[in-house]
Amino acid sequence: MFFKSSKINEFRLWGLLFTLIGMGLMIFGTAGIVLWGQTGKIFAGVFMVFGMIAMLLSVGVYFWAGMLSTSATMLDCPECKRPTKMLGKTDRCMFCRTKLTLDPNQATHTHTPG
């Protein structure tokens, strides 16, 4: 995991990045019309297409994250006691980023005195 957050939040982050990149490309392309007039229309058209492709990628990523979210395992985080979703054998809490697992072989057991 890249930013040490839950897997579903990672997918949503990539969707947001594709959205911002797509919008940025389209705005950058529109600047071609303002700066170069008639010749900038080709520049704008090319960057509009690239921006639209990035926006469609973001829609796909958000759709994929939504589909994964519907089949995710719901459990209560042992740290913050809030319900969170878990993908795969190991994941992190969506709220406090505590490492979670359903596999007893990968679980860490700490003995608390008392």
TrEMBL record:
NCBIfam families hit by this protein: PRK02935.1
UniProt xrefs under Pfam families: DUF2614
InterPro entries for this protein: UPF0295
Lineage: Bacteria, Bacillati, Bacillota, Bacilli, Bacillales
Name of this protein: UPF0295 protein
Organism per entry: Paenibacillus abyssi
Keywords on record: Cell membrane, Membrane, Transmembrane, Transmembrane helix
Stretches that traverse the bilayer: 12-36, 42-65
